[in-house]
Amino acid sequence: MDASSVVAPPPSGRNPGRSLHRFANPGRFLRLSGVVLPWLAATGAALTALGLIWGLFYAPADWQQGDAVRIMYVHVPAAWLASAGYLGLAICSVLSLVWRHPLADLAAVEIGPVGAAFTALCLLTGSIWGKPMWGAWWVWDARLTSVLVLFFLYLGHIALVRAFDNPERGYRSGAILALIGVVNLPIIKFSVDWWNTLHQPDTITLTGAPTMYVGMLWPLLFSALGYTLVFAAIVAARTRAAVMERRIRTLLMMRAEETAA
Amino acid sequence: MTHLPYIVAAYVLGVLIPGSFAVAAFARMRAAARRLAAVDPRANPGSSPGPETGARRR
Questions:
Q1: Which of A173, A154, A153 minimizes the C-alpha distance to A163?
Q2: Do the domain assignments include residue B34?
Q3: pLDDT at residue A6 in the model
Q4: Which of A24, A70, A230 is opposite residue B7, by nearest beta carbon?
Q5: Counting Cβ atoms within 10 Å, is residue A149 exposed (0-12), middle (13-18) or buried (19+)?
Q6: pLDDT at residue B53 above 60?
Q7: What is the per-residue pLDDT for B51?
Q8: pLDDT score of A193
């Protein structure tokens, strides 16, 4: 009998919860991630390098900001991934709370630090960009403040999932915090529209044509796609490690019980 | 190039932060695979999940 059949629930084509269980099987995840991860990491690194080199040396300078606009090729992907990472955290939380997927808890725990790192990168590069443009490292602008709140939400989630002796309680509490924090995502998105902010409004939207010069847009898209793949590769590698670590713990406990018996 | 120190600082952070997380993640993954192979010689992290990988049933 295939070992994966031991952990996978019986196949069912009708029950969506059970179908999702099938895809959340840790064995399948290990197999799939083992194949995809090297390609994901290599493609992400290559696209990020291409986007950054293009943005740094070949994209035009801005007529107002000069070459400082090149910070955009790091800052904007980091900002996008700060929000997208939190959305991923929230989706894992829903999967954990509603369907109790075995992988969702582990993935949520592993997304937290990576999302916090990219949010910190967004805040730091924004601050570095703000100093020459606004004359200040930090202003209590609606966009900046809401992203800072997002950073604290990430830190809260990281602390909460590790705060309990029983990991299951930590996962549940972290999932609830993550879902409460989702309210911050539209605030970040629309903060530049709802309030008069120093931060510029969005230049790339899903519904309209970008207002950015195409010579700047392409390196930004390459950089954003590259960073996104790198983010996904880091999370996949951490989740893969977490699955194996959990398996090691369980095996050692089973052996200890057998020895005691 | 104008604002060079700011640009260099941003790019250094943009490479170092994701890079350090990537290196740490892959090192942790390799260490976990080695430990798993030591604990369970039959285990192949890419193919055999075993009964203890944490699947919960309702």
A1: A173
A2: yes
A3: 32
A4: A70
A5: middle
A6: no
A7: 45
A8: 84
Whether B55 maps to a domain, the answer reads no
Q: Does A227 touch chain B (CB under 8 A)?
A: yes
Query: Total domain count for chain B?
Result: 1
User: A-B interface: how many C-beta pairs under 8 angstroms?
Assistant: 164
Which whole-number Å values give the CA distances from A73 to A33, A120, A175, A224, in the listed order?
Answer: 28, 16, 32, 8
Residue keyed to tokens 């994966």: A4
**What pLDDT was estimated at residue A17?**
52
With CB atoms and an 8 Å threshold, state whether B55 touches A21. yes
Determine the distance in angstroms separating the CA of B20 from the nearest CA of chain A, rounded to an integer.
Answer: 10
Chain A's closest residue to B45, CA to CA, is: A30
Question: What's the pLDDT at B1?
Answer: 77
**List of chain A residues whose C-beta atoms are within 8 Å of the C-beta of residue B57:** 9
Nearest to B47 among A31, A233, A252 (CB): A31
Q: What is the pTM of this model?
A: 0.86
Neighbours of B16 (CB within 10 A): 11
Tell me the per-residue pLDDT of B17-35, one tens digit each, with 9 for 90 and over: 999 999 999 999 999 999 9
